[in-house]
Amino acid sequence: MPTVQEIQRASADGEPLTMLTAYDAPTAAIVDAAGIDVILVGDSMGNAVLGYDSTLPVTMDEVASHTGAVARAADGALVVADMPFMSYGASEADGVENAGRLLKEAGANAVKIESGPHTVALTERLVDLGIPVMAHLGLTPQRRNQIGGYARQGTTEEAAAEIRDLAAKHEAAGAFSLVLEHVPDELAAEVTADLDIPVIGIGAGPETDGQVLVLTDVIGLSESVPPFAEEFGDVRGEIESAVAAYRDAVEDGSFP
Questions:
Q1: Is 97 a residue of the active site?
Q2: Band of pLDDT at residue 224, cut at 50, 70 and 90
Q3: Assign residue 230 a region: left if phi > 0, alpha if psi is -120 to 50, beta otherwise?
Q4: Which of 62, 114, 181, 190 is labelled catalytic?
């Protein structure tokens, strides 16, 4: 199991970092065996596997349960657990307790926090307690009701400057890496150049230190794929064919 320091050293040596989500043991084992550097147990599970229409309903219990399944199956990847909506921010004590639970009980190696001015102090506190933090700026889906959906962020000079400032503050607070989501390529390149910690992009162009995507998008299982993602397989088609073949075999008597 790599450490956050090993992830940072690999990035510093010029190795592009690979990161994918996973939400259960079978897929985590496949992702891990493929040599992916970081597995994110994302709150994207809300849309991807739990049937919610957003990430907002995802609970701490759900994240902890899915993180445990992933952590038990992954031997080579760093496992990062998402802090779900309202598991932090209301009070520092709650944020610390919930982040600690994901490491102590679920087996994560680090937590990811959708970041803002309000998470700088929490990041510093968690790092002081030995809980590695991955920051997340740009499009932060937990704030969809405030920012008006899933539009690209950092598109004005003022908004770009704020993202650069917050990225620097979270690095200074001790975050070991940063996810930068759905921002202009030029801004992502600037943030990557600003920081010494790895910047992992999603919809942020090619100039970041690594890339992250949602597994169900990558394998072709999602019903719809964001414009900045790409399907590298057709698992939905394979499942549909297999299920239909099973149905037909039972109905025509050829199975068993």
A1: no
A2: confident
A3: beta
A4: 181
